[in-house]
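Re-run requested by the PI after the first attempt was lost when the workstation crashed. Everything re-entered from the original request form. Ligand of interest: zinc ion.
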Amino acid sequence: MCLNLRLLDAMVVLSALTALCGEAAAANWQPVATYQGERVEIDKTRIARIGDGKTMAWNRLMLGREESIPNSKDKYSTVQALNRYDCEKGSFATTKRVFMRDDKVVSQETIDSPKEMTAAPGSVDEKLLLEACKKRTVGEMQKVADAVGKLAGGAKPEAEKIAEAPPKAMYADMRSATETKAPTTRKVQSPSYIKHAEAPVSSRKARRNQPAAALAELERIHWGYEGEGGPANWGKLRPEFATCASGKRQSPININEGIRVDLEAIKFDYKPTMFRIVNNGHTVQVSVGNGSSINVMGKRYDLLQIHFHRPSEERVNGRGFDMVAHLVHKDYEGQYAVVAVLLETGGEHPLIQTFWNNLPLEVDQDLAPNVAIDVTRMLPESRQYYSYMGSLTTPPCTEGVLWLVFKQPAQVSPEQVDIFSRLYRNNARPIQSANSRLIKESR
Ligand SMILES: [Zn+2]
């Protein structure tokens, strides 16, 4: 009874927010996943905690093409969905869908009995759930509370009920709603690298034999680079991080004894792009627009984001560097390729300076500066490189990642390193065992 009332209150407030702000005025869409021209985003300004570990959030699926609405002549290219997330159970239900074309609503539906669905591990649904359930900063909570208070005509709700959090679009459910395709089950790889999100979703299978209290205790620990959440413990923190401890193809490694061969040139097809920048609590991360890619070993990988570590994670013949930039790419099957640009102190790096100029003031606040960048300027002059198979260097430490490490470091000024150090003195995972992996090297 109590829950129902609170839910109802929150829904009323949400509808007020939605109806009064309108999407154009209020939205701050943040990309969560892309797949073959489709894009899933969450509106960071319309996330509301509704109590009992539940959150409401707006997501959208942008198809990049037009599809017909069943039994209608109308076409749409975007579906927005209002989802309710159960952060503890790891499930969600879609309560409303809005079909849009060219920013205009063509059709909408409210779901009378929303169906509770589990967010499958590694799915876009799970990514959205993680975003929707992420803890907000106090500043953000206050901002949302203020906005809601204003819209609700001064009846200001308690801040803790209306914490903002970015939601996940009900990807599978949005698609099935169109009835043009079966609900998708395709796996998009873990979002951790893209968003470094903590995973509150429990995987009951993996934890069956562990006492609940011990697990709950571990789940409270956030991964990081020091203390109990440090790299040595990553594999124990959550079942989905197990590969961090058990994997045999982990990164980073000390790169030595590579075989010297004529490695094909990596074909860079980077386009000028706008960017978003966030200090996500683990690194400074720059997300770029669609359309930039590399071609290597017969595959195309799209550029998603760039982030930084200090000191460099990888070593070359035992030598570490002041910093490293990781350019994260993904192919259409969800496989990652990471280009590493080692950074040593010297002259100022113009592109890094652009990033630092636009650093957000708060953790998790993401900025979209009105500045275009050319990511090609991140690359060193010489395109010789090392390559080996490894993993993500942050939980869940997913393997099958193609690493492409430039031999020539780029330069970064001591001041630029200092600026990053103010945020992250050390955010490098220690060297992992190479386990006699083959390393190739341009000669
Ligand atoms: Zn990295």
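Saved to the shared folder this time. The first helix runs from residue 2 to 26.
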